[in-house]
Every structure is written in C-alpha cells, then in structure tokens.
Design a protein that fits this description.
single chain, about 325 residues, alpha/beta, Transferase, Pyrimidine Nucleoside Phosphorylase, Chain A, domain 3, seven-stranded mixed β-sheet, 14 helices, about 45% helix
Length: about 325
C-alpha cells in the first residue's frame, strides 16, 4: 500500500478530509496491526484520524481487522459469556469493574475481563485483582481453562492482542489517544458469541458504538462509563441499553438525580482500599450500590441466563441475598 495518498485523504483538515470506505479501512488497519506501516507514516495516520474523528464505516473496518487477529475462546456453556474491557482505571472514584466481574461469576455467568496493567497513573483493574489474590492469565489457553473451571478469567491485552497493545502504547509517544482506545472496548474473543460491555464517556462515542454494534447485530450492553470503566455509576445510574439482533432495548433509564441515600464506597480509589471494600460487598458486610445491582440484572438477562429482565432481577436478589427492592426497576 502507498501511505501518502491515504494520509492526504485523511489529513486535509476539517472540511477537506475524506472518510475511507469500510474495506479500505480494514486493509489499512490490517497493515497497521501487522507492523507494515513505518513509524513516521503511522504517526501521521494516527494524528489525522484523531483530528478528523473516525467514521462508523472506518471503525467497522478497523474492528474487523482487529477481530481477525484475535485468538478465539470457546463459551463454557449455553450462557453467553460477558466480555468486560477495562482500560481506563480509577483516578477520582473507586474502580468497581473487578466487583462487577466477581458478582457475575457468583451468579453463574461466565466472565472474561481484558485490559492493561498500568492505567497511565490510574488504578487499574489488574492491580485490584492482584490485591484480591486473582492472578492474570499468562496465555490464552490458561484463560480458557480458567473460564471453563471457575467462570472467570482476567487476560492482559499483551496476551490477548500484542498488536493492539502496541497501538495503545503510541499514546506515550504521541501524547494523544488513537483508534485502538475505542477498538479494545468492542472486542469479542468469543467470535460473536459474547456479550460485550461497551462504554464511553462522550455522547458521540456512545452514538458511534450504538450504530456500529447495532448494525452488526452483536450482543452488547451499552452505557456511559464511570471514568471510562464499564460499570454503572454507583451514585447515579446511567441508561442501560441492550443491543441485540439489530435492536436497541432500553432496560433502565438514566437517573438525573443522585441517590437519596448515597452508598458506602471505598474511602480512596487505591487498589488496596478498593479490594478491601470489594471483599466487604462479597461477604455481605457492605451493601451493594443500587445501580450495580441494576447492571447485574441486565447482564444476567442479556447473557441468556434468564428469559426476562424481571426474572434476572429476582435471581440477583435471591443469589446475592439482596432485598428485591434493591434491584427492582421502581
């Protein structure tokens, strides 16, 4: 491929730049991931896309190229496994992604968590898992064994997709995010059989994710993330949308006011404090925040563990010994 014409199309500015077709985007990103693009041209492409913003067709092509290079995992049973991307970490409030994964495991919904160990100065899920005594898997085969045996595996991106990890690392050199930061939040190593927790903080990215995943007929739970992490804000529930079969099903409306009674949360966002608080919730010593209960019910329903959301709400309440009012819609 010739890089100059592509850079010229992408980098002509806000009014002159042109979007790539989905096929052209897939070919370009395949070359990027395979290490065929020289550093100078790679930086120019990353910056041009960042300034132009990627179109849905371009993101579809990029995602197709990324998924082609993913190792394939096998669902451990009839329940759809939940795929949880964790790439932002915590800076102000505690990172509750590990808690969400552990509670889904307790509810007999298989979970794969993938992410990075260091969150650019933030507290990552990997650090919290480590504080809880849960080690990262060192290979894809080990992750498969863990999911089959226990229903939970944490797989670093460096193992799941080294080529995407290289793309993420460009942030250190360029000082800006790039397309990979959105792509990693939509991966499905189960080749379309997983339920993706897709989150973003900016409305434009949520709209793009809704369009992209919805058009592809994929199963996903879409929400506004907490500092970019895919768990419901424990103080104010975001809208929870279930994308499936080309449909968008609103399971819970967004709350616009904070809860009347604020939940007990970790004193700091540090890994040790978050891990200790997580143990308290798992042991029943600390009440589970209502928005997390709602999200669990959505995941249980969307995974196929239950036939309806109401059944999922009852299951969450029973299995986690919660008052039914804590998970109910109203």
């Amino acid at each position: 491929m010739e890089w100059a014409p592509i850079i010229r199309e992408l980098g002509r500015g806000a009014t002159g730049s042109r979007d790539l077709s989905q096929d052209a985007a897939q070919q370009l990103y395949a070359a990027v991931l395979d290490g065929q693009v020289p550093d100078l041209e790679l930086g120019a492409i990353a910056i041009a896309l960042r300034m132009k913003t990627e179109s849905v067709a371009e993101m579809a092509g990029f995602l197709a190229a990324a998924n082609e290079r993913l190792p394939k995992l096998r669902p451990p049973g009839k329940v759809r496994p939940v795929v949880i991307p964790t790439y932002n970490g915590a800076r102000r409030s505690a990172n509750l992604t590990p808690l969400l994964a552990l509670l889904l495991q307790r509810l007999h919904v298989p979970v794969l968590v993938h992410g990075i160990g260091e969150g650019y100065g933030r507290v990552s899920s990997e650090q919290i898992f480590r504080a809880l005594g849960i080690a990262a898997c060192s290979s894809v085969s080990q992750a498969q064994l863990a999911i089959d045996a226990t229903g939970l595996a944490y797989l670093p991106l460096s193992v799941l997709s080294p080529c995407l990890e290289r793309q993420l690392s460009l942030r250190t050199r360029l000082g800006l995010r790039n397309s990979a930061h959105s792509l990693v939040k939509m991966l499905d190593p189960f080749a379309g059989d997983g339920l993706r927790l897709a989150s973003a903080t900016h409305p434009a990215y949520l709209t793009a994710m809704r369009t992209l995943l919805g058009a592809a007929g994929k199963h996903a739970l879409l929400l506004r993330g907490s500092e970019g992490e895919p768990f419901a804000n424990p103080k104010r529930r975001p809208a929870l949308e279930y994308l499936h079969d080309g449909l968008v099903e609103l399971l819970f409306d967004a709350e616009h006011d904070s809860l009347r009674h604020l939940p007990q949360l970790p004193a700091t966002c540090e890994a040790a404090a978050t891990a200790e608080w997580t143990r308290g919730v798992l042991d029943g010593r600390i009440a589970l925040p209502l928005p997390i209960s709602n999200q669990l019910a959505c995941c249980v329903y969307a995974s196929g563990r239950t036939r309806t959301l109401a059944e999922a709400e009852a299951l969450v309440a029973t299995d986690l010994a919660l008052p039914l009012a804590q998970v109910a819609l109203s």
